[in-house]
Specification:
Strand order of the largest sheet: 2-3-4-1-5-8-7-6
Distance between the termini: 18 Å
Mean pLDDT: 89
Shape: globular
Low-confidence stretches: none
Helix content: 10-25%
Order of helices and strands: EHEEEEHEEE
Amino acid sequence: MASRLNPYITFAGDARQALEFYKEVFGGTLNLNTYAEFGQKDGPLADKIMHGMLEAPNGFTLMCADTPTDDHKPGNNISVSLSGDDDAELRGYWEKLSDGAHVTVPLEKQMWGDVFGMCTDRFGITWMVNIAGQGG
């Protein structure tokens, strides 16, 4: 799989509705994963979206999630996602993006089995890097 660059939008509980709307707009395939599917079966987030992805037939990709915290700020809720399975390429991007950045999630294996990291670069842009199938 080639590396992919796309927006990642967080919502305050209505990511499912937003993604269903965007699917009506752009068409395509919608995949939704809840927090319950990844071990958080109890609590207020269980049926909320931990990760959703819309892949439209024209090549557009949109990723979304419900934020697990109360710090949702519309207008400041979009990140950039870099994902794929080329470990060396994506780690190279991570090293450069995280240099001088505030790292909120170190690049390491996550509960869904991929290697993932998140940082806010020196310009205030939040980046998420996900390396599929690497298991760290």
